[in-house]
TrEMBL record:
Domain HTH araC/xylS-type: 197-295
SMART domains assigned: HTH_ARAC (SM00342)
CDD domains referenced in this protein's UniProt entry, alphabetically: cupin_MmsR-like_N (cd06986)
UniProt KW keywords: DNA-binding, Transcription, Transcription regulation
Protein's UniProt name: AraC family transcriptional regulator
Classification of source organism: Bacteria, Pseudomonadati, Bacteroidota, Chitinophagia, Chitinophagales
Highest taxon above the source species: Bacteria
UniProt-listed Pfam families: AraC_binding, HTH_18
GO function term, MF aspect, one: sequence-specific DNA binding
Entry annotated with the keyword Glycoprotein: no
Keyword Metal-binding: no
Length: 299
């Protein structure tokens, strides 16, 4: 006779489970200009959750994220089953039929959350574009775990307005770590920059010069056409446009924090024709350099 497998939704040693009262959601989260965009309704941590099993034939009204850091299990979404292992997360859109279960012999340890909000469906769609069968592999990052734990710790401190804003703004950061993992993993680390990053650093160091597109491409060791295409893909601008934006950004500092004339500032940025500089400034900032200085100078 086949042994019956025990299944349970919760009740695991060391677990954390926080459910935001629905009245708090209705009275504050859905009304506050910040939190109504994206907010947590439930969040938890289940360590070594043996026999963990959930089945929702009609889904739930919130989006769900399950982030596995240890062990394994499976998730079935719209009758498509995917195995989940360490350093993988799965996202389940709202109102989507699903079920999931931890492995009996190597039970998963998971962080999970339910969330809603005006932009939540859009964020979920962005994440889904990067996944396969709603699942994506992540590089383990202790900072990401600390973000999640910070959310849990602060949610347990109560439901004051400032606390709820802080928690849900932190959750935005957590979601960005899933969506833009490469940027998140590189944050604060001195790692070798890619060719476009190195070129931008060079631009920032040489704002006082006139540099041609050919020189930029030569620095990057790419053909002009390839460099231009890669640069635009990374930044949304051509190299020369981007360089000019950096010059204007620097000129704003000169205008606000020095008494240099517009002509002197233009020369400091490698532009000999102050009228050309003024036209470029006006095009990007929507006002002349003099007007910018007058509007932003405090007495």
């Amino acid at each position: 006779m086949k042994e019956k497998v025990l299944k349970k939704r919760e009740g695991f040693e060391g677990q954390q489970l926080i459910v935001v009262p629905r009245k708090i959601s209705a009275d504050f989260l859905t009304r506050d200009p910040i939190t109504r965009q994206l907010y947590i309704t439930d969040i938890g941590y289940y360590p070594k959750a043996r026999f963990h099993y959930v089945k929702r034939p009609a889904g739930v009204s919130q989006h769900i994220i399950i982030y596995c850091i240890e062990g394994k299990g499976w998730v079935e979404i719209d009758k498509k089953r995917t195995d989940i292992g360490p350093s993988q997360f799965v996202i389940i859109p709202a109102n989507t039929p699903h079920k999931y279960m931890s492995d009996e012999h190597e039970p998963w340890t998971i962080y999970w959350t339910h969330f809603k909000g005006e932009i939540s469906a859009y964020v979920v769609e962005l994440i889904l574009q990067r996944t396969k069968n709603n699942c994506l592999h992540l590089t383990y990052n202790e900072t990401r775990i600390r973000l999640f734990e910070d959310i849990c710790i602060n949610l347990q401190k109560g439901y004051g307005g400032d606390n709820l804003r802080y928690v849900n703004m932190t959750f935005n950061h957590f979601l960005s770590s899933l969506l833009y993992e490469e940027k998140f993993n590189h944050a604060g680390e001195e790692q070798r920059q890619d060719v476009i990053g190195r070129t931008i650093s060079m631009m920032q160091e040489k704002l006082d010069r006139v540099i041609t597109l050919q020189e930029f491409a030569g620095y990057a060791e790419l053909s002009v056409s390839h460099f231009s295409a890669v640069f635009r893909e990374k930044t949304g601008y051509s190299p020369i446009e981007y360089f000019n934006h950096l010059k204007i950004q620097k000129s704003c500092q000169h205008l606000l924090f020095s008494k240099a004339t517009v002509k002197e500032i233009a020369l400091r940025l490698g532009v000999e024709d102050q009228y050309y500089f003024s036209r470029m400034f006006s095009k990007l900032m929507g006002m002349s350099p003099s007007e910018y200085r007058n509007r932003n100078t405090t007495v």
